[in-house]
């Protein structure tokens, strides 16, 4: 049986006003297009509603498609012909699009993977509205998060690029994201697919202008870390171990990914599924942060600036890798090798115990993070520029007890007036001045709320700009019907607010993994904020700093004293430290 060949009514088309022509669309082309669209919709909805059985549903559809393709040649059934032709048309269109317009194909692939997740959450939200039992509601959301997190993990693994960066942000926000999402996306920290060694060698030799054998004594083709923008290889120069960061040249792909993510964020905000965070502004701000990551000469200049600050005030506790300048270029950055486990590796252990070298130097996780907080406060209020990506993969616990900070390509420069506004907010938060805090934020334009109030500004500020736990910190961002922020969320976020929120999220998530919940980022920033505003630092702040420094020297002295003198002069803490060192 053949399809009718009678054309549809002709369509009048006028071009330049002097000629007219007829365009006839055969009925079978329309039928095939409609069937192809229906097939794509059915496949997406099967993945959405089947959830845990999504892979089985997809395999069933593919088998049915292949069966219909075979039936095309063995039968005269019209539905089989239409379905087979539609499947062939989809496959051919996808292959052609991948070759002729890879960016468009990539965006369509990402959208096709996101839509089932989004649709499933919309359905779950509708179903949970009628639930009155909190236990049943939590159980339903836990199952939804487990399914959605696994789907998101596979999407990020398949697409990479900017989606990996988004996964890193989600994985580090353990007090804001569901546990299933944090666990599923943890591999995005350093588990990007590696590039073939031949390609890496070609990039290094072309960028440096010398052969690898002439530039390095040793070169390991196996990368020690892989990311979306670059990967790191271990080598040696004049017998000294070095880390070589090699850029993969994906600037255009990243730009297209950010544009696609922006359109998806607009869709989420229109559907009120952005949890009140104003995701389009967040994505736009992130676009500004990542643009410098593709030129390692910019990162080298940033590394020099921040190294001076850290060596001046934090050299006993924090360090940065020293660059090997004659082996640095646009896509190659060679620095000294910082030996020690990454903070991410420590978190993967069941105990997440503080390593012995850091225990000798800092004494506890709390003091280690307090030192990191002060370092970031110095960056913001003294230099006006700060590292915006302190995730656990960029923090190394060195063998001498210090902490090494890596990856200085992603930083944010704050205008002087925004630095002053941030300092004023810190002072108000430290003193508990909620009204002054609300006035400062609204006057500075850092952010805008849908329904602003003093109480809401205070709650949001302590949640997003501090690391202590608040009632909003443990909220389910996706249960938007019961989320305070979703009902009265951000009308507008700003490029200055998002990086500050990001570092607070990353520090809070890392502290939670170590059992530190009451350490305040704001309290650590207060002395530098007061100096920025030209106000006197209270004596109590100086006493606390002197007390911390004295405690560190007592700990350093404890290992040289006999136990009796330690108990007399060092106190209980030093005694315990001495006994732990002698054990």
Structure summarized in a few sentences:
The chain is of the alpha+beta class. The protein has helices spanning 27-50, 54-74, 78-100, 102-128, 134-159, 162-172, 179-184, 197-208, 212-215, 251-270, 279-290, 296-313, 343-348, 356-361, 365-383, 416-431, 434-444, 454-464, 484-487, 497-513, 521-532, 539-558, 563-582; strands spanning 11-15, 19-23, 218-219, 225-226, 230-237, 240-247, 318-319, 332-336, 385-387, 395-397, 403-405, 411-413, 448-449, 490-492.
Please tally the β strands and state the result: 14
Rounded to an integer in angstroms, the radius of gyration calculated over CA atoms is: 28 Å
Q: Structural class, judged by helices and strands?
A: alpha+beta
Helix count equals 23
Shape: globular
Mean pLDDT equals 76
Which band does the percent of strand residues land in? Answer: 5-15%
Spans of 5+ residues with little confidence (pLDDT < 50)? 1-25, 47-55, 542-561, 564-583
Helical percent range?
A: 55-70%
For the sheet with most strands, the description reads:
5 strands, antiparallel
Terminal residue distance: 88 Å
Pfam family, one: ABC1
Protein name: ABC1 atypical kinase-like domain-containing protein
InterPro entries: ABC1_dom, Kinase-like_dom_sf, Mito_struct-func_regulator
Domain ABC1 atypical kinase-like: 189-439
């Amino acid at each position: 049986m053949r399809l009718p060949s009678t054309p549809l009514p002709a369509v009048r088309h006028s071009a330049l006003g002097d000629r007219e022509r007829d365009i006839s669309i055969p009925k079978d082309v329309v039928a095939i297009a409609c069937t192809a669209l229906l097939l794509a919709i059915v496949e997406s909805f099967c993945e959405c509603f089947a959830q845990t059985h999504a892979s089985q549903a997809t395999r069933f559809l593919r088998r049915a498609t292949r069966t219909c393709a075979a039936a095309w040649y063995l039968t005269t059934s019209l539905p089989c012909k239409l379905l087979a032709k539609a499947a062939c048309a989809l496959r051919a269109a996808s292959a052609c699009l991948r070759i002729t317009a890879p960016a468009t194909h990539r965006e369509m692939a990402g959208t096709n993977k996101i839509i089932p997740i989004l649709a499933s959450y919309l359905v779950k939200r509708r179903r949970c509205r009628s639930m009155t039992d909190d236990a049943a509601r939590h159980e339903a959301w836990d199952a939804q998060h487990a399914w959605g997190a696994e789907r998101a993990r596979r999407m990020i693994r398949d697409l990479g690029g900017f989606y990996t960066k988004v996964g890193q942000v989600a994985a580090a926000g353990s007090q804001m994201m569901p546990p299933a999402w944090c666990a599923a996306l943890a591999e995005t920290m350093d588990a990007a697919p590696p590039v073939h060694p031949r390609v890496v060698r070609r990039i290094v030799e072309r960028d440096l202008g010398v052969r690898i054998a002439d530039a390095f004594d040793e070169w390991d083709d196996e990368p020690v870390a892989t990311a979306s923008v670059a990967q790191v290889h271990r080598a040696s120069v004049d017998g000294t171990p070095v880390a070589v960061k090699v850029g993969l040249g994906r600037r255009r792909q990243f730009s297209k990914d950010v544009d696609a993510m922006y359109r998806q964020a607009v869709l989420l905000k229109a559907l009120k599924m952005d949890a009140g965070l104003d995701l389009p502004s967040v994505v736009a701000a992130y676009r500004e942060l990542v643009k410098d990551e593709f030129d390692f000469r910019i990162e080298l200049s940033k590394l020099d600036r921040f190294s001076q600050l850290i060596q001046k005030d934090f050299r006993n506790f924090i360090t940065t890798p020293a660059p090997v300048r004659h082996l640095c270029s646009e896509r190659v950055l060679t620095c000294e090798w910082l030996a020690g486990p990454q903070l991410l590796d420590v978190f993967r252990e069941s105990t997440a115990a503080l390593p012995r070298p850091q225990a000798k130097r800092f004494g506890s996780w709390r003091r280690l993070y307090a030192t990191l907080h002060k370092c970031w406060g110095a960056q913001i209020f003294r230099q006006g520029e700060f590292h915006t990506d302190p995730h656990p993969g960029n923090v190394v616990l060195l063998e001498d007890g210090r902490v090494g900070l890596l990856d200085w390509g992603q930083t944010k420069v704050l205008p002087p007036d925004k630095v002053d506004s941030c300092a004023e907010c810190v002072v108000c938060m430290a003193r508990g001045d909620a009204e002054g805090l609300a006035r400062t934020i609204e006057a500075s334009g850092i952010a805008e709320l849908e329904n602003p109030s003093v109480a809401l500004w205070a709650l949001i500020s302590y949640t997003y700009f501090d690391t202590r736990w608040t009632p909003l910190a443990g909220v389910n961002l996706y249960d938007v019907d019961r989320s305070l922020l979703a009902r009265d969320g951000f009308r507008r976020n700003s490029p200055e607010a998002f990086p500050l929120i990001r570092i607070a999220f990353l520090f809070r998530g890392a502290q939670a993994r170590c059992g530190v919940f009451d350490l305040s980022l704001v309290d650590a920033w207060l002395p530098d904020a007061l100096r920025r505003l030209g106000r006197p630092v209270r004596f109590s702040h100086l006493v606390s700093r002197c007390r911390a420094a004295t405690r560190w020297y007592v700990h350093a002295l404890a290992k040289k004293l006999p136990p009796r003198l330690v108990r007399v002069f060092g106190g209980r803490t030093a005694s315990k430290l001495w006994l732990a060192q002698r054990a």
